[in-house]
Protein backbone atom coordinates (compact mmCIF):
# COMPACT_ATOMS: atom_id res chain seq x y z
CA UNK A 1 0.00 0.00 0.00
CA UNK A 2 2.88 2.34 0.85
CA UNK A 3 4.43 1.55 -2.53
CA UNK A 4 1.11 2.31 -4.20
CA UNK A 5 0.83 5.62 -2.34
CA UNK A 6 4.36 6.59 -3.35
CA UNK A 7 3.56 5.80 -6.97
CA UNK A 8 0.35 7.76 -6.80
CA UNK A 9 2.22 10.69 -5.28
CA UNK A 10 4.77 10.53 -8.12
CA UNK A 11 2.01 10.49 -10.73
CA UNK A 12 0.25 13.43 -9.04
CA UNK A 13 3.47 15.45 -8.78
CA UNK A 14 4.34 14.73 -12.43
CA UNK A 15 0.84 15.71 -13.53
CA UNK A 16 0.98 18.90 -11.43
CA UNK A 17 4.39 19.78 -12.87
CA UNK A 18 3.18 19.13 -16.41
CA UNK A 19 0.03 21.15 -15.80
CA UNK A 20 2.11 24.01 -14.38
CA UNK A 21 4.37 23.84 -17.40
CA UNK A 22 1.76 23.49 -20.06
CA UNK A 23 -0.85 25.84 -18.72
CA UNK A 24 -0.24 29.38 -19.90
CA UNK A 25 -3.12 31.81 -19.98
CA UNK A 26 -3.72 32.22 -23.72
CA UNK A 27 -5.61 35.33 -24.92
CA UNK A 28 -9.21 34.48 -25.83
CA UNK A 29 -8.96 35.57 -29.44
CA UNK A 30 -5.98 33.31 -30.26
CA UNK A 31 -6.87 30.35 -32.50
CA UNK A 32 -5.84 26.79 -31.60
CA UNK A 33 -5.16 27.72 -27.94
CA UNK A 34 -4.06 24.21 -26.89
CA UNK A 35 -1.50 24.05 -29.63
CA UNK A 36 -0.18 27.49 -28.70
CA UNK A 37 -0.04 26.40 -25.05
CA UNK A 38 2.03 23.32 -25.92
CA UNK A 39 4.39 25.31 -28.15
CA UNK A 40 4.79 27.87 -25.37
CA UNK A 41 5.47 25.13 -22.80
CA UNK A 42 8.14 23.55 -25.01
CA UNK A 43 9.87 26.94 -25.39
CA UNK A 44 9.74 27.50 -21.63
CA UNK A 45 11.19 24.05 -20.97
CA UNK A 46 14.14 24.66 -23.30
CA UNK A 47 14.67 28.07 -21.75
CA UNK A 48 14.64 26.64 -18.21
CA UNK A 49 17.12 23.91 -19.19
CA UNK A 50 19.37 26.55 -20.76
CA UNK A 51 19.26 28.54 -17.50
CA UNK A 52 20.22 25.44 -15.49
CA UNK A 53 23.07 24.56 -17.90
CA UNK A 54 24.32 28.15 -17.66
CA UNK A 55 24.22 28.16 -13.84
CA UNK A 56 26.09 24.86 -13.74
CA UNK A 57 28.73 26.37 -15.99
CA UNK A 58 28.10 23.79 -18.74
CA UNK A 59 27.35 26.28 -21.50
CA UNK A 60 26.33 29.89 -22.06
CA UNK A 61 22.57 30.42 -21.70
CA UNK A 62 22.21 31.43 -25.38
CA UNK A 63 24.18 28.37 -26.52
CA UNK A 64 21.64 26.26 -24.64
CA UNK A 65 18.81 28.00 -26.48
CA UNK A 66 20.70 27.55 -29.75
CA UNK A 67 19.99 23.83 -29.50
CA UNK A 68 16.46 24.64 -30.77
CA UNK A 69 18.06 26.03 -33.91
CA UNK A 70 20.42 23.11 -34.37
CA UNK A 71 17.80 20.39 -34.07
CA UNK A 72 15.66 22.18 -36.65
CA UNK A 73 18.35 22.40 -39.34
CA UNK A 74 17.72 21.19 -42.91
CA UNK A 75 20.47 21.00 -45.55
CA UNK A 76 20.07 23.01 -48.77
CA UNK A 77 17.66 20.90 -50.81
CA UNK A 78 16.51 21.80 -54.31
CA UNK A 79 13.07 20.82 -55.59
CA UNK A 80 11.21 21.05 -58.90
CA UNK A 81 10.54 24.79 -58.40
CA UNK A 82 13.65 26.19 -56.72
CA UNK A 83 17.40 25.50 -56.76
CA UNK A 84 18.81 25.92 -53.24
CA UNK A 85 22.52 26.33 -52.44
CA UNK A 86 24.62 27.43 -49.51
CA UNK A 87 27.27 29.87 -50.66
CA UNK A 88 29.01 33.10 -49.57
CA UNK A 89 28.48 36.72 -50.53
CA UNK A 90 31.31 38.99 -49.43
CA UNK A 91 32.67 36.12 -47.24
CA UNK A 92 29.38 35.85 -45.33
CA UNK A 93 27.33 32.66 -45.46
CA UNK A 94 24.03 32.87 -47.34
CA UNK A 95 21.43 30.40 -48.51
CA UNK A 96 20.42 31.19 -52.06
CA UNK A 97 17.06 30.33 -53.65
CA UNK A 98 16.91 30.53 -57.46
CA UNK A 99 13.56 29.85 -59.17
CA UNK A 100 13.54 27.24 -61.95
CA UNK A 101 10.39 28.54 -63.64
CA UNK A 102 11.09 30.54 -66.77
CA UNK A 103 10.68 34.28 -66.40
CA UNK A 104 9.40 36.76 -69.01
CA UNK A 105 12.00 39.32 -68.02
CA UNK A 106 14.26 40.09 -65.09
CA UNK A 107 13.20 38.70 -61.73
CA UNK A 108 12.40 40.29 -58.40
CA UNK A 109 14.64 39.64 -55.38
CA UNK A 110 14.27 39.52 -51.61
CA UNK A 111 17.23 39.72 -49.23
CA UNK A 112 15.95 38.06 -46.04
CA UNK A 113 17.28 38.21 -42.45
CA UNK A 114 16.02 35.59 -39.99
CA UNK A 115 14.89 36.34 -36.45
CA UNK A 116 16.18 34.91 -33.17
CA UNK A 117 17.14 37.89 -31.03
CA UNK A 118 20.54 38.37 -32.75
CA UNK A 119 21.58 35.22 -30.82
CA UNK A 120 19.69 32.31 -32.40
CA UNK A 121 18.38 31.06 -35.70
CA UNK A 122 19.82 30.38 -39.13
CA UNK A 123 18.74 30.34 -42.77
CA UNK A 124 18.73 26.53 -42.65
CA UNK A 125 16.11 26.20 -39.91
CA UNK A 126 13.15 24.24 -41.25
CA UNK A 127 10.72 27.13 -40.66
CA UNK A 128 12.95 29.74 -42.35
CA UNK A 129 13.86 27.42 -45.20
CA UNK A 130 10.14 26.90 -45.80
CA UNK A 131 9.38 30.63 -45.62
CA UNK A 132 12.15 31.70 -48.01
CA UNK A 133 11.57 28.78 -50.43
CA UNK A 134 7.86 29.63 -50.52
CA UNK A 135 8.71 33.31 -51.16
CA UNK A 136 11.01 32.36 -54.05
CA UNK A 137 8.45 29.96 -55.53
CA UNK A 138 5.36 32.18 -55.18
CA UNK A 139 7.04 35.36 -56.48
CA UNK A 140 9.35 33.67 -58.99
CA UNK A 141 12.01 35.68 -57.14
CA UNK A 142 15.66 35.23 -56.20
CA UNK A 143 15.90 35.02 -52.40
CA UNK A 144 19.12 35.55 -50.44
CA UNK A 145 18.78 34.38 -46.82
CA UNK A 146 21.70 35.60 -44.72
CA UNK A 147 23.50 33.58 -42.05
CA UNK A 148 24.89 36.53 -40.13
CA UNK A 149 27.10 35.83 -37.10
CA UNK A 150 25.40 35.63 -33.71
CA UNK A 151 25.84 36.61 -30.06
CA UNK A 152 27.28 35.66 -27.59
CA UNK A 153 30.33 34.99 -29.82
CA UNK A 154 29.74 38.22 -31.73
CA UNK A 155 28.12 41.40 -30.47
CA UNK A 156 26.84 44.55 -32.20
CA UNK A 157 27.72 45.78 -34.80
CA UNK A 158 28.81 42.40 -36.28
CA UNK A 159 25.25 41.21 -37.01
CA UNK A 160 24.38 44.50 -38.70
CA UNK A 161 27.65 44.64 -40.63
CA UNK A 162 27.21 41.10 -41.94
CA UNK A 163 23.73 41.71 -43.35
CA UNK A 164 24.75 45.13 -44.67
CA UNK A 165 27.78 43.75 -46.51
CA UNK A 166 25.69 40.98 -48.10
CA UNK A 167 23.02 43.47 -49.21
CA UNK A 168 25.61 45.88 -50.60
CA UNK A 169 27.36 43.05 -52.44
CA UNK A 170 24.10 41.77 -53.93
CA UNK A 171 23.01 45.26 -55.05
CA UNK A 172 26.02 45.60 -57.37
CA UNK A 173 24.82 45.77 -60.98
CA UNK A 174 27.14 42.93 -62.03
CA UNK A 175 25.82 40.60 -59.30
CA UNK A 176 22.17 41.44 -60.00
CA UNK A 177 22.66 40.75 -63.70
CA UNK A 178 24.45 37.46 -62.95
CA UNK A 179 21.25 36.27 -61.20
CA UNK A 180 18.88 37.91 -63.69
CA UNK A 181 17.51 40.36 -61.11
CA UNK A 182 15.79 43.63 -61.97
CA UNK A 183 17.70 46.40 -60.09
CA UNK A 184 14.41 48.27 -59.63
CA UNK A 185 12.72 45.37 -57.82
CA UNK A 186 14.82 44.44 -54.77
CA UNK A 187 13.43 44.26 -51.24
CA UNK A 188 14.97 43.68 -47.80
CA UNK A 189 12.86 41.72 -45.33
CA UNK A 190 13.13 40.05 -41.95
CA UNK A 191 11.21 38.98 -38.88
CA UNK A 192 11.82 40.08 -35.29
CA UNK A 193 15.59 40.73 -34.93
CA UNK A 194 15.75 40.23 -38.71
CA UNK A 195 13.13 42.98 -39.10
CA UNK A 196 15.37 45.19 -36.98
CA UNK A 197 18.31 44.44 -39.28
CA UNK A 198 16.23 45.03 -42.44
CA UNK A 199 15.07 48.44 -41.17
CA UNK A 200 18.64 49.39 -40.22
CA UNK A 201 20.00 48.27 -43.62
CA UNK A 202 17.35 50.31 -45.49
CA UNK A 203 18.29 53.41 -43.46
CA UNK A 204 22.04 52.92 -43.92
CA UNK A 205 21.70 52.47 -47.69
CA UNK A 206 20.23 55.98 -47.94
CA UNK A 207 23.47 57.37 -46.50
CA UNK A 208 25.79 55.23 -48.63
CA UNK A 209 26.96 57.02 -51.77
CA UNK A 210 28.74 53.86 -53.01
CA UNK A 211 25.44 52.06 -53.64
CA UNK A 212 23.75 53.00 -56.90
CA UNK A 213 20.83 50.57 -56.71
CA UNK A 214 17.92 51.79 -54.58
CA UNK A 215 15.72 49.38 -52.68
CA UNK A 216 12.17 49.11 -53.98
CA UNK A 217 10.73 47.99 -50.63
CA UNK A 218 11.30 46.85 -47.05
CA UNK A 219 9.12 44.29 -45.27
CA UNK A 220 9.36 44.26 -41.47
CA UNK A 221 7.67 41.37 -39.69
CA UNK A 222 7.05 42.10 -35.97
CA UNK A 223 10.35 44.00 -35.86
CA UNK A 224 12.33 45.15 -32.80
CA UNK A 225 13.06 48.80 -33.52
CA UNK A 226 14.22 50.50 -30.34
CA UNK A 227 16.36 49.84 -27.29
CA UNK A 228 15.58 52.69 -24.92
CA UNK A 229 12.02 52.33 -23.55
CA UNK A 230 11.38 48.77 -22.45
CA UNK A 231 8.19 49.70 -20.62
CA UNK A 232 6.05 50.60 -23.61
CA UNK A 233 2.39 49.57 -23.16
CA UNK A 234 3.05 46.43 -25.25
CA UNK A 235 6.01 45.49 -23.01
CA UNK A 236 3.82 45.81 -19.92
CA UNK A 237 0.72 44.17 -21.36
CA UNK A 238 2.45 41.21 -23.00
CA UNK A 239 5.19 40.67 -20.42
CA UNK A 240 4.17 37.02 -20.00
CA UNK A 241 2.64 36.17 -23.37
CA UNK A 242 3.72 33.12 -25.41
CA UNK A 243 7.09 32.75 -27.17
CA UNK A 244 8.64 36.12 -26.33
CA UNK A 245 8.05 37.24 -22.73
CA UNK A 246 9.56 40.59 -21.71
CA UNK A 247 12.37 38.90 -19.73
CA UNK A 248 13.52 36.92 -22.80
CA UNK A 249 13.38 40.03 -25.00
CA UNK A 250 15.63 41.78 -22.50
CA UNK A 251 18.01 38.80 -22.49
CA UNK A 252 18.25 39.07 -26.27
CA UNK A 253 18.55 42.84 -26.40
CA UNK A 254 21.26 43.08 -23.78
CA UNK A 255 23.18 40.12 -25.24
CA UNK A 256 23.23 41.87 -28.64
CA UNK A 257 25.58 44.44 -27.06
CA UNK A 258 27.42 42.54 -24.32
CA UNK A 259 27.45 39.46 -22.10
CA UNK A 260 27.96 41.78 -19.10
CA UNK A 261 24.92 41.14 -16.86
CA UNK A 262 24.89 44.74 -15.62
CA UNK A 263 23.33 45.92 -18.89
CA UNK A 264 20.62 43.25 -18.66
CA UNK A 265 19.81 44.27 -15.08
CA UNK A 266 19.60 47.96 -16.02
CA UNK A 267 17.40 47.16 -19.02
CA UNK A 268 15.11 44.98 -16.90
CA UNK A 269 14.38 47.98 -14.65
CA UNK A 270 14.32 50.30 -17.72
CA UNK A 271 17.10 52.47 -16.25
CA UNK A 272 19.88 51.97 -18.79
CA UNK A 273 19.69 55.26 -20.72
CA UNK A 274 21.81 58.15 -19.39
CA UNK A 275 20.54 61.71 -19.09
CA UNK A 276 22.90 62.73 -21.93
CA UNK A 277 20.75 60.67 -24.31
CA UNK A 278 17.43 62.16 -23.13
CA UNK A 279 16.83 63.77 -26.56
CA UNK A 280 16.30 60.28 -28.03
CA UNK A 281 13.10 59.66 -26.06
CA UNK A 282 11.12 61.99 -28.34
CA UNK A 283 11.49 59.34 -31.07
CA UNK A 284 9.78 56.67 -28.96
CA UNK A 285 7.35 58.80 -26.96
CA UNK A 286 4.34 56.52 -27.20
CA UNK A 287 1.93 59.11 -25.83
CA UNK A 288 2.36 60.97 -29.16
CA UNK A 289 2.94 57.98 -31.42
CA UNK A 290 0.43 55.30 -30.42
CA UNK A 291 -3.23 55.42 -31.40
CA UNK A 292 -5.60 55.73 -28.41
CA UNK A 293 -6.80 52.09 -28.54
CA UNK A 294 -3.23 50.86 -28.07
CA UNK A 295 -2.57 53.01 -25.02
CA UNK A 296 -5.35 51.14 -23.16
CA UNK A 297 -5.73 53.99 -20.69
CA UNK A 298 -2.06 54.03 -19.70
CA UNK A 299 -0.43 57.35 -18.90
CA UNK A 300 3.06 58.17 -20.17
CA UNK A 301 5.65 58.75 -17.45
CA UNK A 302 8.98 60.45 -18.03
CA UNK A 303 11.98 58.12 -18.26
CA UNK A 304 14.16 57.35 -15.24
CA UNK A 305 17.78 57.88 -16.27
CA UNK A 306 20.63 55.55 -15.47
CA UNK A 307 24.32 56.14 -14.91
CA UNK A 308 26.35 57.20 -17.98
CA UNK A 309 28.75 54.29 -17.41
CA UNK A 310 26.83 51.64 -19.36
CA UNK A 311 26.36 53.86 -22.42
CA UNK A 312 30.08 54.68 -22.38
CA UNK A 313 31.01 50.99 -22.22
CA UNK A 314 28.35 49.76 -24.67
CA UNK A 315 27.42 52.72 -26.88
CA UNK A 316 25.75 50.31 -29.34
CA UNK A 317 22.41 50.42 -27.57
CA UNK A 318 22.07 54.12 -28.43
CA UNK A 319 23.12 53.58 -32.07
CA UNK A 320 20.43 53.92 -34.75
CA UNK A 321 21.91 50.89 -36.56
CA UNK A 322 20.66 48.89 -33.57
CA UNK A 323 17.54 50.98 -32.97
CA UNK A 324 16.10 52.31 -36.25
CA UNK A 325 13.42 54.35 -34.44
CA UNK A 326 16.14 56.61 -33.04
CA UNK A 327 16.71 58.58 -36.25
CA UNK A 328 15.28 62.02 -36.99
CA UNK A 329 12.23 62.49 -39.21
CA UNK A 330 14.50 63.88 -41.94
CA UNK A 331 16.41 60.57 -42.05
CA UNK A 332 13.19 58.63 -42.65
CA UNK A 333 12.15 60.62 -45.70
CA UNK A 334 13.84 58.72 -48.50
CA UNK A 335 12.94 55.23 -47.28
CA UNK A 336 11.34 52.76 -49.70
CA UNK A 337 7.82 51.43 -49.80
CA UNK A 338 7.26 49.72 -46.43
CA UNK A 339 5.28 46.75 -45.12
CA UNK A 340 5.01 46.36 -41.34
CA UNK A 341 3.30 43.46 -39.60
CA UNK A 342 2.54 43.78 -35.89
CA UNK A 343 0.81 41.32 -33.55
CA UNK A 344 -1.48 42.35 -30.70
CA UNK A 345 -0.05 39.87 -28.17
CA UNK A 346 3.60 40.82 -28.66
CA UNK A 347 6.01 42.88 -26.55
CA UNK A 348 7.34 44.37 -29.81
CA UNK A 349 3.90 45.49 -31.04
CA UNK A 350 4.40 49.18 -30.20
CA UNK A 351 7.84 49.33 -31.88
CA UNK A 352 6.23 48.49 -35.23
CA UNK A 353 3.18 50.69 -34.68
CA UNK A 354 5.32 53.74 -33.80
CA UNK A 355 7.56 53.19 -36.83
CA UNK A 356 4.51 52.98 -39.12
CA UNK A 357 3.18 56.26 -37.68
CA UNK A 358 6.54 58.02 -38.01
CA UNK A 359 7.18 56.76 -41.55
CA UNK A 360 3.73 57.89 -42.70
CA UNK A 361 4.33 61.33 -41.18
CA UNK A 362 7.61 61.47 -43.14
CA UNK A 363 5.75 60.73 -46.39
CA UNK A 364 6.85 57.11 -46.82
CA UNK A 365 4.11 54.84 -48.27
CA UNK A 366 3.34 52.28 -45.54
CA UNK A 367 1.10 49.23 -45.35
CA UNK A 368 0.63 48.37 -41.69
CA UNK A 369 -1.04 45.01 -41.03
CA UNK A 370 -2.04 44.51 -37.42
CA UNK A 371 -2.97 40.95 -36.47
CA UNK A 372 -5.26 41.21 -33.44
CA UNK A 373 -5.29 37.48 -32.73
CA UNK A 374 -1.57 36.75 -33.15
CA UNK A 375 1.55 36.60 -31.00
CA UNK A 376 5.25 37.11 -31.65
CA UNK A 377 6.82 34.59 -34.01
CA UNK A 378 3.48 33.31 -35.32
CA UNK A 379 4.71 33.27 -38.91
CA UNK A 380 7.38 30.68 -38.21
CA UNK A 381 4.88 27.98 -37.14
CA UNK A 382 4.12 26.61 -40.58
CA UNK A 383 5.14 22.95 -40.50
CA UNK A 384 4.57 19.65 -38.71
CA UNK A 385 3.04 19.36 -35.26
CA UNK A 386 3.55 23.08 -34.54
CA UNK A 387 1.75 24.22 -37.69
CA UNK A 388 -0.65 27.07 -36.93
CA UNK A 389 -3.42 28.40 -39.16
CA UNK A 390 -2.54 31.95 -38.11
CA UNK A 391 1.06 31.43 -39.34
CA UNK A 392 -0.19 30.60 -42.84
CA UNK A 393 -2.57 33.54 -42.81
CA UNK A 394 0.23 35.98 -41.93
CA UNK A 395 2.59 34.42 -44.48
CA UNK A 396 -0.01 34.72 -47.24
CA UNK A 397 -0.61 38.37 -46.38
CA UNK A 398 3.13 39.12 -46.56
CA UNK A 399 3.53 37.28 -49.88
CA UNK A 400 0.46 39.05 -51.28
CA UNK A 401 1.93 42.44 -50.38
CA UNK A 402 5.27 41.58 -51.96
CA UNK A 403 3.52 40.32 -55.07
CA UNK A 404 1.55 43.56 -55.43
CA UNK A 405 4.36 45.98 -54.54
CA UNK A 406 7.68 44.47 -55.57
Task: Characterise the protein shown here.
The mean pLDDT is 94. It is built from 16 helices and 8 strands. α2 packs across α3, α4 (126-139) packs parallel to α16 and α9 crosses α10 (261-268). The chain has one domain: 3-Layer(aba) Sandwich (Rossmann fold), CATH 3.40.50.1820. An 8-stranded mixed sheet has the order 1-2-4-3-5-6-7-8, sandwiched between helices. By secondary structure, the chain is an alpha/beta fold. The chain is globular, with a radius of gyration of 21 Å. Helices cover 43% and strands 16% of the residues.
Which features would summarize this protein structure in a list?
single chain; 406 residues; alpha/beta; Rossmann fold; eight-stranded mixed β-sheet; 16 helices; 8 strands; disulfide bond
Specify the CATH class.
Alpha Beta
Structural class: alpha/beta
The Cα radius of gyration reads: 21 Å
CATH topology (level 3) name: Rossmann fold
Share of residues in helices: 40-55%
Could you give the distance between the termini? 72 Å
Spatial shape: globular
Helix and strand pattern: HHHEEEHEHHEHEHHHHHHHEHEH
Protein name: AAAD deacetylase
GO cellular component, one term: membrane
InterPro entries: AB_hydrolase_3 (IPR013094), AB_hydrolase_fold (IPR029058), Arylacetamide_deacetylase (IPR017157), GDXG_lipolytic_enzyme (IPR050300), Lipase_GDXG_put_SER_AS (IPR033140)
GO molecular function, one term: carboxylic ester hydrolase activity
Amino acid sequence: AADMRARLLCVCLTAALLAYYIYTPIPEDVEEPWKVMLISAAFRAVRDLAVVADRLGLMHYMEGLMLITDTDYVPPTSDENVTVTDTEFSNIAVRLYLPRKPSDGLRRAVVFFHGGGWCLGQAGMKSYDHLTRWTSNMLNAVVVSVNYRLAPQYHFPTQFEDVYLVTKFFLQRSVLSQYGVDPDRVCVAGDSAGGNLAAAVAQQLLEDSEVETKLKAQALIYPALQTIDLNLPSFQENANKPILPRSLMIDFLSEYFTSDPSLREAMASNRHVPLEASHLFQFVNWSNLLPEEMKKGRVYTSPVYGSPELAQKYPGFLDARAAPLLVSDAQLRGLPLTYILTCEHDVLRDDGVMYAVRLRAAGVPVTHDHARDAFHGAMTFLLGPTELAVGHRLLNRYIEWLNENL
